[in-house]
Batch of 3 targets.
Target 1
Amino acid sequence: MGDDTQNTQTQTQNSQIEWSQNNTPTNIPTIWGRLYSTKVSLSGRHCWNDSNYPDYYDIIQPEFSLGRALSCSFVIKKNMVKENIIKNVSKQHFTIQRDTMEPLSPAILTDFSYNGTFVNGVKIGKGYSRVLDDNDEISITHPLVKIFVFKDLLKNEQDKVPKEISQKYYVSRTLGQGACGVVKLVYHKEKCTKHAMKVIKKSRLTNGQVHHLNDPEKIMNEIYIMKALRHPCIISTEEVFNSKDTVYIILEFMQGGELFDKITKHGHLSEPITRFLFRQMVLAVKYLHSQGITHRDLKPENVLLESKHDETLVKITDFGLSKIVGEDSFMKTMCGTPLYLAPEVLRANGQRFYGPEVDVWSLGVIFFVCLAGYLPFSSDYKEISLKDQIMTGKYRYSAVHWKNISLQAKLLMKRMLTVQVHRRITLDEILNHAWMQDHDSIIRVETLLCNAANGKNFQHLTISSASDEENIEADNITVMRLMATGKRALSDSYNSSEPIPKKLRVAQYSGCDDNTDTSSNNSNTYYFDK
C-alpha cells in the first residue's frame, strides 16, 4: 500500500468531477472515506491477483457494500482475488454506512457474511456492527486476508482525548458547552451505541486566578457515588476516565434533548404535558435527597428528554456537579445564571448553611417557565435588581400568560416560590397536591418508569418512594452519607465572567404595584410572597 495519503481527498475529487470551463460546479461530492488495497498480508501471501486489484476505492454514498453480488458497490470477481479466497466470500459480505446528514458521525461496518469479516484481526460476527477508525484493517474470510485499510477523511477529535478513551469511543460533535465543561457526542466502537461525554477541566479560571482542584481522590470518590445512583429519572453515569488535568464522564445519551429547547420551541407547555413531565422531575429530586444529594443547579437545561414526544421519559443531569468542579467555581457559575436559585442560597453569604429545600424553589421556577413560557425572575426587569427579586420573592406575573392556567396550578407555583423555607412546600406535599392528582397521568408515569427501570435492571426500585437503601451497596451508603451531604455554605459573590445562560423570553412590563392582586386584569404585574 502506498504511504502517501496526504491531499488524497482533493486529488480524487479532481479526478472524478468533470469541470466546466465556464461554470463552477455547485454540487461537489464529499468523499468521506477511502479504502486502500493491502497488497501483502502479514503471512506474506498476496490477497489480490498481481495486476487486478485497485489502488484505492473512494466512498461517497452513505452506504458502501462489498461482496460477490452484482448489486454491491464493490463486486469481488474471480480475476481480482485468489481462488481460495473468493469461494468463501458471501454475496453481500459487509457494508460500511455513514449518516452524512449527521455532522462528524462515524463510519459503521456491519458484517453480513457466513465466513467472517474482521477489523484489526477481530471477528465482527454476522449481524453485528462496529465503528471504524482511521487506518483500521479490514479482513474477509480469515484474519490474515487483509483486503482493505480504511482511511477516514472526515475530521474527528480522536487525537484530543486520552488513548484509553479513543480506543473505546469514537468522539463526534459537540452537543453543548457551558461553564462546567464541554459535552461531546461519542459512539461506543463495539456496541455502536450513542453516549454523551462530559469533559470537565480540573483547573478553572476564578476571579482572574487559576483555581486548582488538588484532591483528585475526593473528586473520583464523588463521581463514583453518583455512578452508583440508580433511578430511571436520573441520567446514568456509564464510565469515568480520570486524567491529570481532566475528568471524562460517559453518560447515557438522550435523543429528545433539553427541556429548555422543548419549551422555547412551543412557547410554553400545556398543563397535562407539564404534569406528566414535572411528576418525574419531583420523583427524581426526591430520590436524590433520599441519597443525601442536593442538586442545587436545577434548570430546564439540566432536564433531558428521552424522545421528542410530548409524553417522554425525563432524566435529571448534572446533580452534585458542584462537588466535582469545586465549591468556589460552582458558586461562580451559579451566580452567572442565578435565575433558578433559591433566596437562601443568595442569602448564605458563605457563612450560613442551607438545605435541600433549595431544589424545591428551583423546581418552582421550572414549573413557572413550563406553564407560562417566560422567566419569573430576570435582570431584564429593570425596576428591581435580579437579586432583590429573588430575595423578596417578587416574580413577574403576567395575567395574559396565566389567564388560561388553572387555579390549582397557580397555587402550587406560589407554594414552591415561597421565600420562607419553613413555609415552602415539600416534595411529598407536591406529589400529594391537588393539581398533581390526575389518576391517568399518574398511571402513565408509573408505567413508563417501571418499564425504564426493568430495561436498566433496577432491582427492587420503588419509583414513587425511594429509600436510602435502594440500589446502593452497603459500603457505598456510608461513603455517600459522609461525602454527599446536602447542606453546604456558598459565597454571596454576584459577579461572573461565565458564559451567558440560554435565553428564555421575559414578560413585557407596562408598570405595576408591588401589592397588585394576581386576579387583576392588568396584563403584567408583580406578585410576591411576604
Target 2
Amino acid sequence: MSTPSIASRAARSRQRGVMNLLLVLLIGLAMTVTSIGVVHVMRSSQEGQLSLHAMTPAQQSAWTGAEIVRRYLVVASADTIAKLSGPLQVSGLSGLSVSIVSVAKNTASGSSVYRVVANIAGAAATATSASSTATLQVVYDVTPNPGSSTTGNGGSTTPGVNISTINIYKNLNMTGGITVLGGNNANLNVQGDVTLDNASITGVNSINATGNVRVGSGIHVNQIYSNGDVTVTGSASVNQISALGNVMVDGGANPFVITANGSVTFAGGSATAVTAIGDVDVTAGGVSIGSITTMGNVNWTGSGGSVSSIKANGSVTYAGGSTGSTAITAQGDVTLTGGGAQSVTTSGNVNVNGFGGIGALQAQGNLNINAWGSGVTGIIGGTLNKASPYMSSNVQVSPGFTVSVPAVAITPLQQVTISRPAIDAYALQSSANYVFQVVNGAIQVTVANVVGIQAGTYYLGSYPFSNGRGYQDFLCTQLVTGSLNSNGVGQCSTPATPGNTICQGQATENDCLSYGNGAWTVSGRSFARGVLWFQGDLNLSNGYYLDTAIATGSITTSGSFRIDAPNYAGYAEMCTNSTPSGMTLDPVQVADFNGVYPSTFCNASSQSLLDNPIGNVALLAGGYVNGVFSGGNITVGASSVINGSVLAGNDLDTGGSTSINGFITAAAQNTSDTQPVSLSGATLLNFSQLPSSYNPGSVPCMQSCASTNNNGSNTNASIIRWSRYL
C-alpha cells in the first residue's frame, strides 16, 4: 500500500479549514436571523401588551361615565330627559365623552318609562403608541317619580299607586328556575336580605335592598344597590354594585363597577373599577382589576393578577404584576412584593420586596430595596437603603423633597328607602262586584255594579234537576226551610224559577263554590266576570277565571288553575261574554252568563275597558280588623297561571311549574312572621306580550290615598337595562 505524500496531506488539511470556516459562517448567519426574529416577535408582543393594558383603563373610564350618566338621569326632570339629544357635557374627567343616541317614552308598564340610549367613550394613554379607546353603548330605563293618581271606576273612585316588578318587605330567597321575560325584566325592591343562589335565575335587572345581598350560581344581575353587604360568588356577574356596607367577590365572579361605603375584598374574581371609602383587600391570586380608588388602605396579598391604577389615602401593599402602565398613588407607605409598578407616587416610604421594580418613583420618605429586581428609577426625600449594594437602582436622594398627593374624596352612598304599600282587602270591599260572606251558616252574596243582576244581597242556592240540566250556584232571595247543608248552600224557593248563576262547575249538575272551616273553595270551569271578594281564606283549584280574586285571609292555588285579571282579559271577554281560548264551556253554560257583565270595567259606547287599577290585580290577600292584620299569605301551586298582579299582605310562595304575568308584592304586614319569602320551582314572569289594556304596575290604593307614590322620594328610578361595547 502506497503512503500519501506530504503535499497531498497538506492540501486536504487546507480544505478542511475552509469547510470549518464556511460552517461557522452559516451557523452565525442562522443565529443572527433567529435573533432578529425573536426581537421582532418580542417587540410585537410588547406593543400588543401595552395596547391591551391601555384598554383596561379605557374601559374603566367608559364604565365610570356610565355611572355618571345614570346619576344624572336620577335627578333629571321628565321634561329634561325627554329633550336629551346628541353630546352631553361631562366635566372633571379627561378622555370621556357622552352622546345621547335616542330617548323613547313607554307607558306599557303602567307608568311613564323613558328608555335612554347613550354612547360613552373612554380614552387611555393618549398621545402614546399605546393609545386606546373603549366605546360603551348603555341603555337606561328611567322612571320619573309618579306621585299620586286617581282613577274613576264608573261610580266610585279608586286611587291608584305604582309598584315595581317584585316588591318584597321581608327577606327573599330565590331558588329553582326563575325566568323573567320582556318588559324591564325583574326589578326587585326588598326590605330585608336577598339571596339568589343554587338556582338558574335569568332576567333579573336590578336589586334594591335595605339588607344584605348574595348572588351566586352564575346568575347575572345588571345592578345591585344595598344598604348592607353584597357578596357575589361562583361565576355570578354584576354590571354595577353599590353597597353602604362591604363587598365580597369570591370564586370567578366578575362585577364591572363596585362602589362601597365599607371595604371591598377579592377572594377571587375580577372587576373593572373599584371605589371604596374603606379598605380594598385582594387575598386571592390571579385577580385582575382595572382601577382602585379608596379613602383607606389597599392590601393586595394574592400573587399574580394585576391592576392598572391605585389611588389611596392610606398605605398600599401590592403583590400583583405590572401591566406596563400600573400607577400607584398613595398618601401612606407603599410596599411592592410582586412584579412592581410602572410608577409610584407617595408621601410615605417605599419598600421593594418583590421581583419587580419601579419605572418612575416619587417618594417623600425612605426607599428600602430588599430583593433583587429590575431596578428602581426616581427621586426620594428620605434615605436609600439596600439589602445588598449590588441591587439595581437609579435613584436621586434629595433631602427635604416633598410629594403632595391629593386626598381621595368619595361621596358616601345614600340609603335606599322602600315605602311599603298597605294591602287591606277590607278597603276594597265596596269596589267588589260580588261579596261572599257566611251569615247564620248560609252563604250570602252581595252584588253591585253588575249589568243583568239587580244590586242587592242574595243567598247562594240550587234548584232541582229539570229540563235536562242541573241548577247549581244560583242566586235567590229565599231558601227552603231546613234545606241548608254543611257547605252553606240550600235549595232556592224564591224566585220559583232559576234566575242567575255566578259559578260554573264541570257540568251543570256540579257546584263550583263551597265553604267550610273558614275557607272558600272554588273548583270548576269558570266564574261570573268581575271583582270577587271573600271573607276568609280562599282555595282556587282548577278552572279558568276572568276575575280579580280578593280574600281577607290567605289564598292558595292548585291544580290546572288559571286566572286573568279583568284588564288582562280585555273588553270582549269581560263585557260581551266572549269565551277566550283555553276556556271550555258548553253552550248552556255560555248562555247562563249572557247579558251579565261588570259595569265598573265596561264602557259600552266606546267598546273599551274603563281605566280601573283594581282590574290589574289577579290575586290579593289579607286585611286589617281593628288595627290587627291577619291572613295575607298567597301560595301559588303547580300548573297555576296568574295573568295579573299578585298582592300578598304578608307572604308569597311559589313552587312547581307556575307562571305569573304581573308584578308581585309581599308586604310582610304580619310582623310576627319572620320566615323569608320563597320563590322556587319553575317560576316564569313573562312581560313580553302584555295586552295594551293591562298595566301591571298600577294597583288600587288601600290606605293613606291622599298622596302616595312608589318610592317615597323625589328622585327617579334609573337602571341600566343592558350594555355592549361598540
Target 3
Amino acid sequence: MMMRRWAEFVLAHRRWVVAFWALVLVAGAMASGPANERLTTDFSLPGEPGAETAERIEERFGSGGSTAPYLVSFTAPDGADAADGAEGSAAAFDEVGRALPDVRLLHAGNTGDDAFLTEDGRTSFALLFWRWDESATGLPTEQIRAALEAAAPAGASVGVTGYDALAAGSEEEEGWGVLAEVLVGSVGALAVLAFVFASLLAFLPLVVAAASILATFVLLLGLTYLGEFSALVSFLIALIGLGVAIDYSLLLVTRWREERHHGRDNHDAVRVAMQTAGRAVLVSGGTVAIGLISLLVLPVPFMRSVGIAGALIPLASVAATLSLTPALLGGIGPRVDWPRVRRERTASRAWTAWATRVVRARWAAAGASVAILAALVGAFFGLRIGLASTESLAQNGPAYEALHQLTDGGVVPGHLTPVEVLVSSGEAEAVAGELARVDGIDRALVPTDEASNRDGETVIALIPDAETVDSTSVDVVDRVAERAGDLDGVLGVSGVGAVQLDFMDAVYGNFLLMLALIALLTYVLLVRAFRSLLLPLKAVLLNLLSLGAAYGLVVLFWQYGYGSDAVFGIPETGAITFWVPLLIFAFLYGLSMDYEVFILARIREEYEATGSTDQAVVQGIGRTGRLVTSAALILFLAFAALAASPATDLKVMATGLGFGILLDATIIRSLLTPALVSLFGTWNWYLPDWTARLLRVAPSRPAAAEPEPRPVRTAT
C-alpha cells in the first residue's frame, strides 16, 4: 500500500516532480566539478605501526614514509668518462634537491654508496622521495623531469620512473577520462535498451540515470565539507551509477509496459508497476547500500569514505527511479512508447522454454552449475594480495623505458620499494649495519645530508633484493621489523611494504566481521521482502558463491595472466592490489543481489497467483529472463568502459565487476536459482508466525497441494 500511495502522490504532482529533477540536473552539472576537486588520494591507515611511522617521517622530513620513491637518472652520452659522469651526477642531484622543495634524494654523493651506477657506468641514478599531496589530481613526473633537465650534466639524458609512474599507465596513452567513459557506456546501454523496448522508451532510463548521477554529485559535494573522500568515488558514481539507475528504471518501465499491454489505463499501469517492480527496486537499492555501508566496519578512512559516498549511488538511483520514472510515464509514457514493435502481454517464448527445461532437469542443472562455480572458487584460493608487479604496469612510455634502462644495467628492482627505517641519528650506522644482514636485503643506505637528518633523527633506506609488492614478497619487511624491534635507536619501520602489511592486518583481519554483518542485514531485509526463511538464505549463499567465482576469474585472468595479455597486452600481475578485492566485494555483493531480487520477487508474485512452485519458476523466468540479461549487459558495458582506464588497478577492478555480473546473470540467476527454487518446492514459501510478528510482516504458508503445472502463454 505504501508504494501505491507514493505512486498516486507522484502522479498527482508529476509536473512538480519533473521540475524538481530538472533543478537537480542543473545543480548536479554545477556541483560535479567542485566535488571532484575536493576529492583526495589519501590511503593512510591511522593507528597501524607502519602508518604511524610514515606519518612521523612525513611530518618531520616532508616526504616519503608511505609512498614509493621515484627513480631519477642521468645517462651520459657514449664515450663519456664514467668517473667524471658519476661525480657530475652527484652534484646535479644535489641541485635537483635544492630545486624541488621538501624532497629527499639518496644518491652516491650523500650516502657514500657506489652502487648508484649501472654496470656500463653510463647511468647514475638516485631515489627521490616526493612530498605526498592528497589533493593532487596527477603525478609530479613532469615537474621532476623539468628539474632534472635543468640540472643535467652536459650531454646527459634524464629518466624518471617509479611504481606510481608505472601504475598510472603509459604516458603516451592517457585513457578516455570519466566523461568519455560515461558516454561510451551510455551508447552501449542505449543499444541494449533499444533492443529491449524497440521504441523511444529506450531513452527514458538514460534520462533517469543522468538525473541520478548528477544528484549523487550534489550529495557528494555536501559530504566533502564534512570529511575527506577518495578520488575513486568519482569513477564509481559515474559508471556504476549509470548502470544501476538504468537497471532500476528498466525494471519499472518494463512492468509498466506489461500492464499497459494487459489493458490497464496509463495511471493504473503506473500504480501496479510501482507496487510490484517499484518494491523490488526499493529492496534492491537496500541490498546495494548495505554492501557499501558495511565498509564502515573497516578501520581504514579511504575505504570508509568509499562506503559512505558509494552508498549515495543506490540511494540516488532509487529516488530517481521511484519519482522521476513514474512522473514521466504518467505524463508522456504512452506517447514515447512508439513504434510498438515489441509487445509485453505474454512471457518470452525463449526464456519460458529455457526455464521449463531447467525445471525438468533441475538436479543436472544444479549439479553442473555448482561444479563450474566450485572450480572457479578453487582458483580464488590462489589469490595473492598486494600490489601488481611492475612488469604488469606500463608497457611503454618514458617511465617504462627508464626502468628497463636501470634493470638492464644490473640495478636490483628492490629500489622501487625500499624499506624506510626511522632511527636516532647517533645509532644510524649501527642499525644500518645490522639490518643490512637481514635475509632478502641487498644493502642499507645511510644518507648524510640535512634532508634526511633532522632534529636527531635519520631515515635510512633498506633496498630489498626484489620489489615488495605482494603477500609473499613482503616477508622481508616482516623480518626487518622483527630484527629492528631488538635494536636500540629504532623509532619505526615504514615504506610501501609496511603499509601493505598494515592494510592486510587492519582490513582482512576484520573481513569476517564485515562479511557476517552484511550477510545478516541482507538476510533480514530479504526475509521481510519475500516472507520466507529459505529463499533469502539461498540468495545470500549464492551471492557469496558468485563472488568467490568472480574472484577466481580475476586470479586466473590477471594474477596468472590467462587473458590479461591477450585482451589488454598486460602480462600477469602476480598479485591483486590490496584494496581491489574489497571494493569488488562491496559493489558486486549488492549489484548481483539486484538480479536475485528481480527474479524472486516475480516468482513469489506468480506463486501467490498459481500456488505452483514449478509454474511460478517458469513464468517468473519467462518474464524476467530478458530483463535480467539486458540489465546485466548494461552494467557490463559500463564496466568495460571503466576498463579503458590506463591504470592497471582500475582495469582489474572493472573486469572483476564485469566477470561477476556476467557470472551472476548466466550461471547463477538463469540456471542455479530456478533449479534450486524448483528443488526446494514448498519449503520456499514458509515463514513462521513468530518470525513474521518480529519482522512486522504477514506469515507465509505453502499451498496445501500444489497443482499440476499448466501451459504458460508465451510471446509470439
